[in-house]
User: Which sequence fits this backbone?
């Protein structure tokens, strides 16, 4: 088997075999995967902790914008909150970016919207109070994540 | 919660890629995965272990193509399965489950690479413990390309080439659009780039044989 005689598919086959032999999956990978699946099936959403809060253009009446950044594991959510005459406007961006149903609960009131393929979503006219935002990826499934409570 | 039984590692012989010739009796991973996924959707909880066992080797190599260290790669594979549990209902065609998992794994791996702004690529020394120092008697046969040759020669290629070749070696239906996004290449250039990377590898192997 001379290298110059190998076509592309044969060379890729040889590479695949080499990587399988020299860098095999860890022996515990299947067990770890099953355990991760079992934990996910417990339906406990990941709670994203507030990592930072930045204010911009805030005036004495508390108008303006602020940006909250929530994070846990590989999940990150940014919420830009602006006060408008008809209530709060919230523009969100989540990673990993997935289509999903995003829900905001604020003092017993709930609103729902969809996130787009880039993980973006928006709410308008949200009242004041203590709120959480959560995302559900599949109909009927439990939320994948929920933010820690924050104040609007 | 349903406690899933531990996988029977001898239960299923799985081929890692498209090559039907290498193991005539082995079924491609994507076919085993599709059957297992259908069974799982029909209520066979044990089928999840077959799905995991079929796809984990593929997911491992796809993730390692991003040069993540072993611990991080394990985390990414686990996160891929978590995302599967939360998003499987979006897979309209069960035969697409392998592609869905591979795309998700690559997306997670790529995001992890980007998040780790200070991520240090895996040094060769960290990947080499599995490499035999001395060639075996089998490897010394005339004209035989050894694993050691391949390892050394592929290591001389650019990071982009190494990643691209490892992805396409294990993904029989690569998503060129997403690979293009991740590598900064145009979709139309991936095929030619793949060919050029293989040409460079071939040339490196020839040069290695002439030493």
Assistant:
């Amino acid at each position: 088997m001379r290298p110059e005689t190998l076509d592309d598919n044969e060379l890729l086959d040889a590479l695949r075999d080499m990587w399988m032999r020299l860098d095999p999956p860890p022996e515990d990978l299947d067990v770890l995967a099953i355990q991760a699946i079992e934990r996910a099936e417990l339906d406990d959403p990941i709670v994203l902790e507030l990592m930072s809060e930045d204010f911009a253009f805030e005036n004495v009446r508390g108008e303006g914008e602020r940006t909250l950044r929530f994070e846990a594991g590989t999940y990150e959510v940014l919420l830009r909150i602006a006060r408008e005459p008809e209530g709060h406007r919230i523009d969100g961006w989540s990673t990993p970016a997935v289509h999903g149903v995003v829900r905001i609960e604020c003092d017993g009131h709930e609103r729902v919207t969809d996130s787009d393929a880039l993980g973006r979503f928006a709410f308008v006219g949200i009242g004041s109070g203590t709120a959480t935002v959560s995302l559900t990826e599949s109909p009927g499934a439990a939320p994948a994540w929920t933010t820690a409570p924050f104040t609007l | 919660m349903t406690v899933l039984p531990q996988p029977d590692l001898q239960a299923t012989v799985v081929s890692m890629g498209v090559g039907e010739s290498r193991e005539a009796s082995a079924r491609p991973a994507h076919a085993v995965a599709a059957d297992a996924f259908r069974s799982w959707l029909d209520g066979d909880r044990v089928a999840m272990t077959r799905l995991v066992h079929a796809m984990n080797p593929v997911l491992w190599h796809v993730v390692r193509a991003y040069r993540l260290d072993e611990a991080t790669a394990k985390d990414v594979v686990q996160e891929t399965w978590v995302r599967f549990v939360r998003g499987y209902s979006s897979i309209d065609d069960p035969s697409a489950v392998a592609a869905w998992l591979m795309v998700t794994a690559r997306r997670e791996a790529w995001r992890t690479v980007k998040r780790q702004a200070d991520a240090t690529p895996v040094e060769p020394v960290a990947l080499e413990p599995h490499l035999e120092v001395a060639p075996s008697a089998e490897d010394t046969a005339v004209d035989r390309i050894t694993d050691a040759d391949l390892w050394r020669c592929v290591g001389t290629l650019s990071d982009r080439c190494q990643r691209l070749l490892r992805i396409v070696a294990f993904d029989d239906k690569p998503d060129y659009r997403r690979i293009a996004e991740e590598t900064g290449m145009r979709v139309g250039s991936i095929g030619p780039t793949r060919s050029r990377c293989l040409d460079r590898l071939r040339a490196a192997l020839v040069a290695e044989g002439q030493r």
